[in-house]
Amino acid sequence: MTADGAGVLLKLGGELLEQAGGRRDIALAMHRLRDSGPLVVVHGGGREVDAEMAAKNIPKRAVDGLRLTDSDTLEVVVGVLAGRVNTRLVAAARVAGIPAVGLTAADAGVSPVRRADTYMAADGTEVDLGWVGQPVGTEPPVLVTRLCDAGFVPVIASIGADADGQLLNVNADTLAGHLAARLSVERLVIAGGTAGVLDEHGDTITSITGGLLEQLIADGRARAGMVAKLIACREAQRGGVASVRIVSGKNTTNLDDSPGTTVGGQ
């Protein structure tokens, strides 16, 4: 990333990466975003994790879009995200002419993490998330900046490790918001399966100010994974990211023109 805050951090929801055609379209979108400056990609893979857990008869538990992670769940998460989801996306990016490099948050301090504190859910309940990591630190990640300076595109799976080497499951939206701030990118684009933040009628809310963001979380209109996305947007903005959008990543190869929600302001 550059000193003047150029560059884009793109967070991809796992639902966009399940099929070869979807990965191909996303790779083309990554190529276009890269034309405007350095690009860093963070991805999830929740539905593939869910499918693998179901196959292993491991029950899924989550709160506000954050996966409660016991040891069995962690083993699945690491294998799915750092393994096949990351590698398949890197391969698709390479076909599209992007010099992608697959990483996790644990690689060379891409994002130091610690085990998350007891979580206060939107409904006021306190929850122990288990083997879940919270990104820490404010310094730009050296490995990521050097890769970008050399023309590569880091593709980062949301798996971290604490100071003792314990692997931790990091929510991909949380990681994206934190890295966007640390890298001082100009833009954070969170691409998923819906056209931004939806109102009670299913219509896209085109713009969300800081006050509305807090209201959406507090009154329950933002649910499950959208809570984590909004909190990530808030952290990125507080870290100086100028443009933050939550957009649809479906049926498009140009995410800048994709319908969605701009998050910003007071």
Brief summary:
This protein is of the alpha/beta class and 266 residues long. It is 35% helix and 22% strand.
Structure keywords:
266 residues, eight-stranded mixed β-sheet, two-stranded antiparallel sheet, 35% helix, alpha/beta, Carbamate kinase
Helix count, DSSP H or I runs of 4 or more residues: 7
Report strand order across the widest sheet: 5-10-2-1-13-15-16-14
Could you give me the name of the CATH homologous superfamily?
A: Acetylglutamate kinase-like
Given this structure, which CATH class is correct? Answer: Alpha Beta
Q: How much strand content do the residues show?
A: 15-25%
Instruction: Calculate the terminal CA-CA distance, rounded to whole Å.
Output: 27 Å
Report on the biggest sheet. 8 strands, mixed
Helix and strand content put the structural class at alpha/beta
What's the SSE blueprint?
Layout: E1 8-12, H1 20-34, E2 39-43, H2 46-55, E3 62-63, E4 66-67, H3 71-95, E5 100-104, E6 113-115, E7 119-120, E8 126-127, E9 133-135, H4 142-149, E10 153-157, E11 159-161, E12 167-169, H5 172-183, E13 187-192, E14 207-208, H6 210-218, H7 225-238, E15 243-248, E16 260-263
Parallel strand pairs: 1-2, 1-13, 2-10, 5-10, 13-15, 14-16
Antiparallel strand pairs: 3-4, 6-9, 7-8, 11-12, 15-16
